[in-house]
Write a structure and sequence with these properties.
The protein is α/β, with parallel strands linked by helices. The chain contains five helices and five strands; from the N terminus they run βαβαβαβαβα. Helix content is 42%, strand content 17%. The protein has a five-stranded parallel beta sheet, sandwiched between helices. Helix 2 runs parallel beside helix 3 (70-77). The longest helix has 17 residues, at 121-137.
Length: 138
């Protein structure tokens, strides 16, 4: 018995910023299997280059990238046309507890959510619900 794809407000575009190639591939497959479009970037600079033309609605960004911090990537995206209204998410191997501590020290306008890896169906549901709610208010 197959899983039903997540309900989606439209074909939702997800930009996955992950430097671990195996984890990026598995995560992208999971996101696609749930009915979403996904594009992967392996560095912060690559993510910034493609985000403006891909126009993601959700950005899942690893915290520790080879060229820059995920926080720096999302901060830069917050002012970038085509991305500034996306849900910006730190996606990290850190524990939920460590992410809560990190969240206290981060400008709330830079990051919308902090999620622990691996991505779950519940986390995708929550992000899509948030996205749908923001669209209805707009």
């Amino acid at each position: 018995m197959g899983r039903t794809p997540l309900h989606q407000p439209s074909c939702c575009r997800v930009l996955l910023v992950e430097d671990n190639a195996d984890l990026a591939e598995v995560t992208a497959l999971f996101i696609r299997a749930n009915g979403l479009e996904v594009l992967s970037a392996s560095s912060g600079q690559h993510a910034l280059e493609i985000a403006g033309t891909f126009h993601p609605e959700i950005v899942l960004c690893d915290l520790m990238l080879p060229d820059m911090s995920g926080l720096d990537v999302l901060q830069a995206m917050r002012s970038q046309e085509g991305v500034k209204d996306a849900l910006l998410v730190i996606f990290s191997a850190k524990s939920e507890y460590d992410l809560r501590l990190l969240k206290r020290d981060v400008d709330p306008s830079a990051v919308d959510f902090f999620l622990s890896k691996p991505i779950t169906r519940e986390a995708l549901d929550m992000l899509l619900s948030q996205l749908h709610g923001w669209r209805r208010r707009a």
